[in-house]
């Protein structure tokens, strides 16, 4: 939700001459959270962002196998190895997913420009296929499929909404490309808002089309659109859809590979992770080490893990990051060191604690109580409203955005915190256990290695001086030589 303020952090200030603050030049939410909430929260967020990319890539790679099987008139498991000695959720081994990840790794390592050209051409084809699915699918629409519009009630809607965040992890990758954008102050906002608007509209139209073609109970989990066309008697169309889906997923994997490697590079530059991951190949201009490591992890996860496990775990990480960015926006707008008084800082902390507490309580009630139980919400929702209103009325804003900014502060970021945490209450317990295990690993690594390495690096490089230069960039004091 804090995209507007995040864009400012992505501006490239060429007057600094050297890339000593390149972690701030791009890096999306990691850079934003590091500025506003500090290294610790930024590292936890970064670890979950990496998890997002790995799991998202693994899920897409496994879906690639499913659509490839459909294209070959086979079921997805026909192309997978069933290991009966492994648990059911991890026993459907997918060697094709590994091969696809390896091929994407080669493309991503060779050239960013070459990858961009491939994506440009592939995107045109993708748009044509999406239009075909919508037009042809609506030609076979049956409105009776919507007779039972909400068969699982409100809980079913919110559970699906929580998993839906699976589809929105790629937008933050736009911000990671700021260093490779000519005019990031203009292009990054256009890229983020434009792509998100178009993609959301496409998601909605395709979901409506799919449910009008076949009843929701007959939607295939592995290759829904291909099977849907076959179900309505257009067997030939499933090949067009499957081929388009393969192309689209290949593009997604390539964009994800480029974005996740940049993320890992930015984190490694702070020495929170091994600095050799930040190495950029002089010939190709790409972060080879980071690309190989991330796609190797993606291939391993994709080889073993089923799609439903990946989607739930991915949604937890995504919702968690969205909540942190919204929280960071409140901190950014209402707190500036040396300007915000002690009294206002206490008020800010109390309001944020109340917003978080009421949001968590709402999610717990939703996740544990019956959906018809409304008494708890009568307490938690007004508490959230009063905390947000108190922040609006009692704490003066310490900073206004100079270039781009989120409107309706504090209501919009506060609502984002409430909604994201609320949706977390719709995700199953096992996914939270896996998420907790990953977060625990991050904490152990940070306190044993990352904390000391990043502190030593900051001390040696005089990071405080660099942050003074960054502050000028954040406040809009951009040199005319930047062309922004």
UniProtKB/TrEMBL annotation:
Residue span, Cationic amino acid transporter C-terminal domain: 404-454
Name this protein carries in UniProt: Cationic amino acid transporter 1-like
Keyword set includes Ubl conjugation: no
Compartment(s) of residence: Membrane
Domain of life, per lineage: Eukaryota
Membrane topology, from the record: Multi-pass membrane protein
This protein's UniProt keywords: Amino-acid transport, Membrane, Transmembrane, Transmembrane helix, Transport
Regions crossing the membrane: 15-33, 40-61, 95-111, 118-137, 157-178, 190-216, 236-264, 285-304, 316-336, 348-368, 374-391, 403-423, 435-455
InterPro entries linked to this entry: AA/rel_permease1, CAT_C
GO cellular component, one term: plasma membrane
Keyword Glycoprotein: no
Primary location recorded for the protein, binned into one broad class: membrane
Family from the record: Belongs to the amino acid-polyamine-organocation (APC) superfamily. Cationic amino acid transporter (CAT) (TC 2.A.3.3) family.
GO molecular function: L-glutamate transmembrane transporter activity; L-lysine transmembrane transporter activity
Pfam families: AA_permease_2, AA_permease_C
């Amino acid at each position: 939700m804090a995209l507007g303020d995040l864009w400012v952090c992505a501006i490239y200030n060429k007057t600094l001459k050297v890339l000593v603050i390149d972690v701030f030049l791009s890096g999306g939410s990691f850079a934003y959270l590091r500025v506003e909430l500090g290294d610790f929260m930024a590292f936890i967020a970064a670890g979950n962002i990496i998890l997002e990319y790995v799991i998202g890539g693994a899920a897409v790679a496994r879906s690639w196998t499913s659509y490839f099987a459909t294209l070959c008139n086979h079921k997805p498991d026909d192309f997978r190895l069933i290991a009966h000695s492994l648990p059911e959720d991890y026993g459907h081994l997918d060697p094709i997913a590994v091969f696809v990840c390896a091929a994407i790794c080669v493309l991503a390592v060779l050239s960013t420009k070459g990858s961009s050209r491939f994506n440009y051409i592939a995107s045109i084809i993708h748009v044509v296929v999406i239009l075909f699915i919508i037009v042809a699918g609506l030609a076979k629409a049956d409105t009776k499929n919507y007779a039972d519009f909400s068969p699982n009630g409100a809980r079913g809607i919110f559970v699906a909404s929580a998993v839906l965040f699976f589809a929105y992890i790629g937008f933050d990758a736009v911000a990671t490309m700021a260093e490779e954008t000519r005019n990031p102050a203009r292009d990054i906002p256009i890229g983020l808002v434009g792509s998100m608007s178009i993609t959301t509209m496409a998601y909605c139209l395709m979901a409506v089309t799919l449910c009008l073609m076949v009843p929701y109970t007959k939607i295939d989990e592995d290759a829904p659109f291909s099977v849907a066309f076959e179900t309505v008697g257009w067997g030939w169309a499933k090949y067009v859809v499957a081929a388009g889906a393969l192309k689209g997923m290949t593009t997604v994997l390539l964009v994800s590979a480029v974005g996740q490697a940049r993320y890992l590079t930015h984190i490694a530059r702070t020495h929170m992770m091994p600095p050799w991951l930040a190495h950029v190949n002089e010939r190709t201009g790409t972060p080879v080490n980071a690309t190989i490591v991330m796609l190797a992890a993606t291939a391993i996860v994709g080889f073993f893990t089923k799609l439903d496990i990946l989607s739930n775990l991915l949604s937890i990480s995504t919702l968690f990051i969205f909540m942190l960015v919204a929280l960071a926006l409140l901190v950014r707008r209402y707190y500036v060191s040396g300007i915000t008084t002690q009294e206002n800082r206490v008020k800010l902390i109390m309001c944020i604690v109340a917003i978080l507490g009421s949001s968590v309580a709402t999610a717990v009630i939703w996740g544990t109580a019956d959906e018809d139980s409304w008494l708890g919400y009568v307490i938690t929702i007004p508490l959230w409203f009063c905390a947000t209103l108190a922040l609006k009325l009692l704490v003066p804003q310490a900073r206004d955005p100079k270039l781009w900014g989120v409107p309706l502060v504090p209501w919009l970021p506060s609502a984002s915190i409430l909604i994201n945490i609320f949706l977390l209450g719709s995700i199953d317990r096992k996914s939270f256990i896996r998420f907790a295990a990953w977060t625990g690993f991050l904490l152990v690594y940070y306190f044993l290695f990352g904390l000391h390495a990043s502190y030593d690096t900051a001390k040696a490089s005089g990071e405080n001086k660099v942050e003074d230069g960054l502050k000028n960039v954040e406040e809009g004091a951009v040199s005319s030589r930047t062309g922004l």
